[in-house]
Amino acid sequence: AMADRMEESNAWRHPIDLVAILEAAFERLPDLWDHSTGNVGAPDSSPLAPRPSQLLATLLGDDPQAVVDALLAALEQGHAADAIAQAVAYAAALRIARFHTSNEFGDWDTALHTFTFANAVHQGLRRAPSPELLRGVFDAAISVYLDRFLNTPAARLPEPQPGVQSETLLADLAALLDRQQQVNAAAQLVVNYLATGADPQRLLATIGRLLLREDRDFHTIQAVEGAFRQYSLAADATQRAHFLVAAVRYLAAHAPTVRSQGQTYQIALRLHRGEALFEG
């Protein structure tokens, strides 16, 4: 197996030494941990505290020192470590939600890797918080910074369209994913559905079914699982919508596949029922 340490890569060392910025921040984490650890998992902890728009803009900005300083400031102010991790995961999801299709196709996975890492760190801090794991929040935030070129230009986040009815939207989503690269149309449909006030669980179930009908790989599963997990934890409706937009855009970018896995499943199901495969 081959593995690279990010601190050994050129992007993390030049033109800005990101490793040096992180190492300076890591020296402060043991002392700052006591300010945040008591709030881990607290229901009133604000994921984008102290000012949501300001922190998010910093996380999505082009100044890595400002990114690290903003995270340190949030810890100094006593905000929960897992809530700060959640903010970074949201910023990472926005890189996918705003990924422009003019980018190289393989760069979908560049954005996805950052999101899945940020999501994993967030879930880890919820389950087994530690100052060592907190370092991962900073690593993920710097990865979000490095992915900024994927949003240059940035795809427009869809806004709900007026007068849309929910009855046919889920079927329309399935039909969209029968055609290649329906990325933006699929995202628009998700936002339209949520805006109707219809049951969001039906949308989640539909996205799950659309995942299962494709020849899914580890990346596609990660995209949907991570978005669903973050959707379930987000308190803000706009954030929840953006997580699903990220998931469906990634899924639409990689659909349709040959869908041979579904054929294998159908054969297995018929064998389980005792059917003769070659009789009709």
Number of structural units classed as domains: 2
Over the alpha carbons, how many angstroms does the gyration radius reach? 21 Å
Range of strand content = under 5%
From the helix content, strand content and strand pairing, which structural class follows? mainly alpha
Helix content: 55-70%
Q: What is the number of helices?
A: 13
Specify the overall morphology: globular
Which stretches are poorly predicted, pLDDT < 50 over at least 5 residues?
42-50
Profile the largest sheet: none
CA-CA gap between termini: 46 Å
DSSP, total strands: 0
N-to-C SSE series?
Answer: HHHHHHHHHHHHH
Mean pLDDT: 91
Please characterize this protein's 3D structure:
The protein is mostly helical and 280 residues long. It folds into 2 domains: 6-151, no CATH class; 169-260, Up-down Bundle (Zinc Finger, Delta Prime, domain 3), CATH 1.20.272. The chain contains 13 helices and no strands. Helix 4 runs antiparallel to helix 7 (131-146). It is globular and about 70 Å long.
Question: Which characteristics define this entry?
Answer:
single chain, 280 residues, mainly alpha, Zinc Finger, Delta Prime, domain 3, 62% helix
Write the layout of secondary structure elements.
Elements (H helix, E strand, L loop, with lengths): L17 H9 L2 H8 L15 H8 L4 H13 L4 H17 L9 H21 L3 H16 L22 H8 L6 H13 L4 H14 L4 H16 L3 H17 L6 H13 L8
Helix pairs in contact: 1-4, 4-7, 5-6, 5-7, 5-12, 6-7, 6-11, 8-9, 9-12, 10-11, 11-12
Short structural summary:
The chain is mostly helical.
